[in-house]
Amino acid sequence: MNAKQYIEISSQEDLKEFIQNCTKEHTQEILKHNNEDYDTLLTTDQCCELLQISRTTLWKQIKNGVIPKIRIGNTLRFEKKEVIKALKTNSKLNDHDRQL
Questions:
Q1: What is the torsion angle, in degrees rounded to the nearest 10, for the CA atoms of residue 69, residue 89, residue 96 and residue 82?
Q2: How far apart, in whole angstroms, are the C-alpha atoms of residue 59 and residue 52?
Q3: What are the pLDDT digits (tens) for 37-75?
Q4: Please, which residues have CB within 8 angstroms of residue 42's CB and are 6 or more apart in sequence?
Q5: Which of 41, 49, 53, 84 has the least C-beta neighbours within 10 A?
Q6: Number of domains in the chain
């Protein structure tokens, strides 16, 4: 069951704090539930789904060297363990480096 939550955001600082808290909670959930199949290769769509980001955001993270990729012919794959490692260690994914 999905319960609705209502929040009050009265300043940009409140919004920034809310986004950071949500991101940290999401990161912790990913890390807690993704120890199985640790050595699997992910497709682009699977990587986006795992991180709950858009393809555009994934491409930016690849370009910035945040998410490591493997090229197999004309396709990209991502080692799940490396994606999770990047998630744990890189502040660009953990804090979204948003400027509000």
A1: 20
A2: 13
A3: 657 899 999 999 988 899 999 999 999 988 999 998 999
A4: 50, 77, 78, 79, 80, 83
A5: 49
A6: 1
Residue with tokens 């940009």: 12
Would you say residue 29 lies in a domain?
A: no
Place of tokens 């999905």: 2
Q: What letter would DSSP give residue 71?
A: E
Range of the domain at 66: 39-100
What's the CATH code of the domain at 59?
1.10.1660.10
Average pLDDT, stretch 20-38? 69
Under the banding of pLDDT at 50, 70 and 90, the label for residue 19 is: confident
Spatial strand order of the sheet with 70-72 comes to 41-42, 75-79, 70-72
Query: Full-prediction pTM beyond 0.70?
Result: no
Asked if 79 and 88 touch (Cβ cutoff 8 Å), the reply is no
